[in-house]
Every structure is written in structure tokens, then in C-alpha cells.
Design goal:
The complex is a heterotrimer of chains A (131), B (352) and C (382).
Chain A: E1 11-12, E2 17-22, E3 31-34, E4 41-46, E5 49-54, E6 69-76, E7 81-92, E8 99-101, E9 117-123, E10 126-130
Antiparallel strand pairs in A: 1-2, 2-10, 3-4, 4-5, 5-9, 6-7, 7-8, 9-10
Chain B: E1 6-10, H1 62-72, E2 77-80, H2 91-112, E3 119-124, H3 130-140, E4 146-152, H4 165-173, E5 178-181, H5 201-208, H6 212-219, H7 224-227, E6 233-235, H8 243-257, H9 272-275, E7 276-280, H10 293-298, E8 306-308, H11 329-341, H12 347-351
Parallel strand pairs in B: 1-2, 2-3, 3-4, 4-5, 5-6, 6-7, 7-8
Helix pairs in contact in B: 2-3, 3-4
Chain C: E1 16-18, E2 22-26, H1 52-56, H2 90-100, E3 105-108, H3 118-139, E4 146-151, H4 157-167, E5 173-178, H5 193-201, E6 206-208, H6 229-234, H7 237-249, H8 252-255, E7 261-263, H9 271-285, H10 296-303, E8 304-307, H11 316-326, E9 332-333, H12 346-351, H13 358-370, E10 375-377
Parallel strand pairs in C: 2-3, 3-4, 4-5, 5-6, 6-7, 7-8, 8-9
Antiparallel strand pairs in C: 1-10
The chains are: A mainly beta (131), B alpha/beta (352), C alpha/beta (382).
Amino acid sequence: MQVRQPINKGARRSAREYVVCRQEDLPPGRMVIAPVGKFGVGVYNVHGILYAINNYCPHMGGPLCSGNVYGTNLWDDVRGRAEHVLDGRIARCPWHAWEIDVATGVSVADARKRTRTYDVRVENGEVVLTR
Amino acid sequence: MSGLLIDAAVQPFCRDGREIYDYMDEVNRDRGFPDVESQWYQAPGGDYDESLYGKGYPGSDPEIASRHLFEDDGVDVAILNPRTRGNLPDFQLNTAVCSASNRWLAHRWLDEGNPHGRFRGTIRVNPEDVPGSVAEIERWGDHPLMVQVGVPLQSRDLYGRPRFYPIWAAAAEAGLPICISTNGGAGLEYPPTPTGHARTYSQYIAFMAYNYVYHLLNILTEPLFKEVPGAVFVFSDGGAEQLTPFIWKLDTLWLGVRDQTPWVDRPPSEYLKDHVRLGFSRLDKPPGDSVPIVDWLAQTGKEDVVMYASNYPFWWRNHPDDLYEGTTKEQTEKVRWRNAGEVYRGVTAEAA
Amino acid sequence: MSTIEVSGSDRTRTKEVDVRWVDADVHPLPHPGDGFLGYAPDGWRDRLAPRGHEISGVSARILDQPEANKAPTGKVDSYSPRGGPACSDPQFAAQQLLVETGMDIGILLPMGRDHRNPDYEHALKTTVNNWLADIWLDQHNQHRRWRGSISVTNREPELAAREIERWAGHPMMVQVLMSPQRPAYAFGDPKLDPIYEAAARHRLPVATHLMANLPYENSIKPVGVGGHFSDYISAWGLILASHLMSLVFDGAFDRHPTLKVVFVEGGFLWVLPLMWRMDAIWEARRSELPWVKRRPSEYVRDQVYFTTQPLDDVDTREEIAFTRWLDMAANLIFATDYPHWTYDDPKWALRRLPKELHPRIQHENATELYGLPQTVPALPGA
């Protein structure tokens, strides 16, 4: 299944590094898919912190990063009630709505299920992804 | 044979439909309500094992039942669960019927009829009357031979719903599991299948075994175990053969809609061992050697939740040997007594 | 999006490819541009007013699927740039399901269109059939990859039988489709005989599928209704289990020995223990069931089919072991459930199904049951 999200036109910098975009092109709340690897890599700006995960759902291999981004609901044992947390950090796969934390690549429901994460940083105003 | 044998489902009867009135409180003694034998889907020819029809209802004489269960079948402890009247529209009358059932059982079966000390009882409550149920559990909770709380399978709402939690909390507080089982002359109830009233007794009885699935899936989906962590549910009518297909469905869907039920913080199937038990009879298992029984019992932990259930005195009554062919020694022990011993207080020590 | 043309031109023979995958569960919906109400029977057009959610596009289900607020009708990536609900654009659906996912033939099962009033429901089903035949089976079926279902109301069996007769000769209509969930009749009820007689006469299987969990399409379940999407839908197979028991115990398979029934998207693992229990009860109570001449499991194996989707996300080896115990090579048919969020990807599904069953499940059972061709015209990019 092809990735429907427009793929950002970045540039390969070295065998291990890839320039995804200019920093200002990835403001908080946005995501771009870098054409790295077989499926692409989703690079997220969550409240100013950058994360990158493989655009590949650990479930059926759906295009994980082309779905919607949310927070999630977790039970708070101390308060004894559900809380809405991790706002902007949860990618939901467009196929089966699995929730993946973009900071860790781990499924919220089942920590044994995870997708690959990548190091990403800002250098000289550019977003640089390490494969 | 592998140690003890605990029978998790025996149904005691009154000698006849009038006996229960002797135990009704004065306020309700002149009321009328359906006999527990007013079974709308009675089996043609009768619900009970033909060989058990004698003077009274089958299962109405503690001495005869003792002989069948303890001498003939080698049962060590039998858990008695009388049927009550389901949901009567008049909730206070229904609670009074449950109270009478508890007084009758304590007197006739747990005291008079229990010289061997092998009978255990069920505190029947009316789930439509939450405070009345809580009071009834508090009244009987200390009785050393009452080992569970009983409610009708035929409910008007699924038992995972919060309005029932005070009852489940009172049971958990008293260290008692909650047994959900089919009532006989049930009162108000919905059609017994999701496609309406069955046209044949065969469909009725086949499908009734599966209605526990609705309760089970709901119990595993609502915030119940966060609110009442000690609650344990026993589905004594069985239906274990459908546990794996439906628990797999719930585990699967939960992965996608977990955020709608955040209190379920692990795969629902992982709650089974600590919180659920199922009666186990010959109708609940693969016939003959059609599938490898050891693997089948191990799948989704069925071996950790099923308990021997004779269903005495019904026509599908089991004998213990019906269940163990081909199982491992460990599985046999779990079915015979270990799984029951984990949820019923005092049943393993006293019977030993 | 450009039209998907069949490869080749007028002068050359169209290239054909072997049918290797049949998808037995695809859910088209009307596009706003289709003029759906124009397909209503005489006198009904003005009465079939769209309901609120059909105008607003919000979810109307009383138990909501994930992200129902953003994607009320399908998985998030299945919406066409042409707008409309998921799978309302036949060209986009063909691109996604036939070209990219590689399905060779898709069986279309329109959902919804149940109604409280039986005559109204019949009018809606008729409208759906007219629309499906025109838009999906004619206008956008140059590739001859889509097959249709004749939607009928089982609350008016005589009207339903007439509707089957109306479409029986249509080369692209391959089955009858009726709702399992309205409080009408259990499937074995003799009142449904006109439907089964018409279907069997024309060798059309009768399929059933969840129609929607809209408020009026639900009945109260025997001990109460599930409180959340997960427990409600997990228990869904029980409705089909009850219909299957009724078909057997009420003698429908005896009365209609050539009838084929297809249970779509309701699971299939529960069928194995259901057969154990039905057989055991039949053994014990045969004298009460003189019209059930054979062992219940024999009817199931001879006359009932189950689609595979949704497979469970559980230990793959355990799932395969269970499916082997089921031993129903001739009764399982692959389906994706496109465009719904419980979609099964074919490559993922194959890993969860016993290898020796793959050809039967992928296409052989479906092509035999539905009388489908062995080859279809090639598509560009497929």
C-alpha cells in the first residue's frame, strides 16, 4: 500500500544522516514523512520536541504515520479515574487505530508491540535524521 | 484418582412448590409467585435425569442426593445452588423469596441434611434490589458453609454495569465469589436467544449455555475490577467450549478501542485466571479425541478456570469420569478441585 | 483520479489474468453524486428522506468504532479525494483494493438500509439494488471485477422472494443478502421459506452480515446489551450462532437441501464448538427433532460458508491450530471487509491461516460457490 501523505523532499547528507527539512517547516503539531528506508519515517514535532518512527505499523504493516495524531486515555490508579494524557504524542494507525507512542514507538495497549524509532535532531536550522 | 473432587454445580430442590412458603417472612407469606418448576422452556418429558424421579422433585432429598453424589460418584464437596425466581417485577417480594431460599437451604441442607459436612451453600440475592442484596450478603456472609453469592443469568442488564458493584463489593468483602446461573421459573426476562424465542427446546438449551458470554465480555470491559478488585465470577452452567473464540475477539478489538475503556489496562484474557471460573461438563468439551484435549484445555488458560460440575439432577448430568480422558495429571487436578479450591473458601481443607 | 481502463484496446484482445484472490466482503456506499434517491421505486422517492447523519456525515452508531468522530464510515485512509463516505467512489476503491491490494474479484455487500417499517425497508432494499446494479455493476465495472448482492428484507419474505426473482438473471448479482439483526425471524423459521426457495432455485447463496449498530437496528440481547464497542462487537458471533442453530434445529436445511448460507464477518472459530454442542444435543433429543434427519454438523459442513475476516490478533500458532481442528477447508472464504477499520490485509491474513488451506480460502471456495470466472481482465498497475 503506498504512502498517501505527500512525501517531504529532503536530502541525503551522508550514509547515516538525512536532512528532513528546515526547522521552520516542522512546527509543533506537525509531522513530515522522510523517504528513508522501505516505508518512510515519520518525523513529529510534539510541543517542540522531535521524534521519529518508522511509517510501518507493527500490526499489519499499515502506513502508521499517515493516520491521525491524538493523546490517549489512561487509567490513573491514584485518582481512580481515566485521564487524557500524552496529547499530540499518539499516532493512530489508519488501518486499525492501534495507538503508538511516537516518543517510544511502543503500542499503548501492548508494550510487546513496537515500531522502530530513529534519532532526530536540529542542526544549523535543519532537521537531521539518523538512520 | 487425583485427590479431591469438588462438584461446583448441584441444584437442590424443595420437596414441593409449597415448602418454600414455610421459610417466607410473615410480611410476604401470603403472596403468590411462580414455582421454580414453572420452566417456560421445560424439556419435553422433564428437565431431570429420568432415573432420579422418585417421590418428590429430583434433588429434593439430601439423603438421596448424598448417596448419588458422595457414594456413587465419589464427590468430596458439593456446592448447592438453588434456583430462585429470576426477576420478579416486585423487587421486595423477589428479595423475600431469596431470603426464604437462604433460610431453607441453611436449615434443610446445610444443617439437617448435612451430617457428613460435605454440602456447601449459595446465598441467593436479587440483583434488582441492590441494598436488599447487600443486606442479605451481610446476614449470611459469616455462615461457615455459605461459599458463594448466587444471581440469575437471566438479567435485565449485564453484570459488569456499575449499578451492581455494591453487591459484588459486599460479596468480595465476605470472600465469596458470585455465581451466575440459569434460573428456572424466571420472572421478567428477554427472549433467550438474540434471534428471539427458540422454536425448539434443543435450540433453547443449546443457546442458553452461551448467554454467559455476554456477561463475561461485559464484566471484562467495564471498570469493575478497578472498583471491586476482589470480585470473582463463577458461570456454573458452563459453555467453556466457546471461551477461546470469544475471548480472542475481545483481546483483538481491545487493541483498537482500548482508549474507550482505559480501566482495562491489560489484555482482557489476562483477567480470567484471577476473576473467572466456569462449570465444566461433558457438553462443554470436544467429543472423543476429535481435538487434542491437552492443548485444547491449555488454550487461553481454560485449564485454569474450569471446575467439575455435575449439574445434578438435570438430564445432562455428568459423572466425573466423563471429563478426564486424555488430560494431564495436573489438568485433571485443576478440574477436580484446584480451580474450585482457589475461589471457594474452606472447601479443600475440610474435605481432606 | 482517472478511470481505471481495462488494458488493451478495441483492436487487441484484452489480456486476462488468473483469479487468485476473491474478496467476499466489500462495502460500497452511495456517493453524494450518485443521486441515490433517484433509484427509488415509484412513489417512494419523496418518502425516503435522508436521515440526519446522512446529511451531516457524523457517526450514527450507538456504539462507536475508533476515531468515529473523524472517520465515521471507514478506515482513515479509505476516503476518496472525490469526497463522500469511504468506498463511495468505485474508481478509487478499485485502485486501492483491486490494483494496490491485489484482489481479483470483490463481492459487494451494501450495508444499512434496515428500517422499522417492513414496507419501507423493502423500498430501501429495492433502491439499493437499483443503485448498485447501475453505478457499481454497470457504469464502473468495465474490468468486470465487481459482483453484487441482492439486498432483501427478511421481514416480508414474499416481497423478498419477488426481489430475488427480479435480479436472478443479472450476470453480476451473485448472492442474496439479508440482515441478521432485526427482531424478525430466526433464519430457520419456515416463514422465510419463500426467500430460500427463490435463492435455491437460482443457485444464489444467501449471505448475512451485520447491517450497522444504528439505534433502530439493534435488538435487546438475552441478558442485556454490551456497554462498549469492544464487548458488544466481540459477542456479535452469538447472533449468527443462534441463526445457525435455528437453521439446523428448525429443519431449514432439510427443507432446502441445495440452499447455501454465507455468514460474513461473524467469525468462524465458534462454529467448531457449536457443532459439538448441536451434535450432542441432537444425539440426546433426536426423538423431538424428527425433521432433523442428519447430524447437525453435517448440514453445516455441506451448506454453510464463513468468511475469514476479522482474524484474531492472537498467537499465530494457536490460531492456526484451532483452524486445523475446525477442519473446514471447503467452507472458509477470504474477505478484507474493505473499507472498514477491521480490514484484514491479505498478506497478514495468510500468515494466520493453515498453509494447506490457502488456495481454497483465497479463491477456490468462492469461485465454486459464486460461479465466478477463472480469469478476469488485467488492470493497469496491478
